Request: fold
Amino acid sequence: MRSYLKILEKILDEGTIKETRTGINALSITGYMFEHCMFDGFPLLTTKKMGLRSVAAELEFFIKGLQDKRWLQERGCHIWDDWCNPELLPYNTDDRTKEMMKAENDLGRIYGVQWRDWSNWESHSHKSDLDSIDQLEQLVATLKKNPLDRRMLVSAWKPDELDKMALPPCHYAFQVLSDGKYIDLLWNQRSCDVPLGIPYNIASYALLLLLLAKESKLIPRKLIGFLADVHIYVNQIDTVKAQLKRSPYPLPTVNILGDKFIFDWEYTDVQLNGYVSHDKLEYPLAV
Reply:
């Protein structure tokens, strides 16, 4: 997938060193637009081996609006092991806090919780009636009723609840657009760990696009990511250079099995076809 590899090359060529909250410096550029045509195959990296099941499990976790990381761990997905709700345990980078964060299972009001349960204080006389908005349900309903609507957008960035999230959302909003035949998905991301996180984000939103396409009986077409702080951590640079020496293989395809409603879909309802990749690469995670 050359469109992804070009991001790595651009960072190495043009990036500047920045300090980060993790204590590990990053080589960074500002602003990049990633684009992939779904007609070319499913965008799962082939220059390193990736597991689609973990990506799918995390997406189901988001779609269901869950926040207990044990649900993920029971399904072999360990993406969220190192984080927890900062209201229960304030974030820190010391070893003891990191171990305590791993032991706490509540992730707080992260991505899927906001997708499915956006808290809304109604404008009544005393502003005390708490309501909830299911953004994803509204998007699916609008997509079926009026696919030409330009307001089909879901946000995970809720300023008054950022201190209740294990991690403020990196990919903080997504939108779908359609011409009545094709459907495109666009997402916005404020912070982009390109070697480790972005491949999962690409695959996750591609899978969400397939689910929405199947639900609405539209044809999945464009996947576009608007990336802000686009970086490689300095302890990832050597492995990035090794990955760039690898030639990509043809992309696989993905089938969504069965005819389940999107909110009943499970991560096991995914069939990956023709996936050939280079060996796995170990990239360090900056927590």
Notes: The domain at 2-273 is CATH 3.30.572.10 (Thymidylate Synthase; Chain A). The two ends are 27 Å apart (CA to CA). The chain has one domain: 2-273.
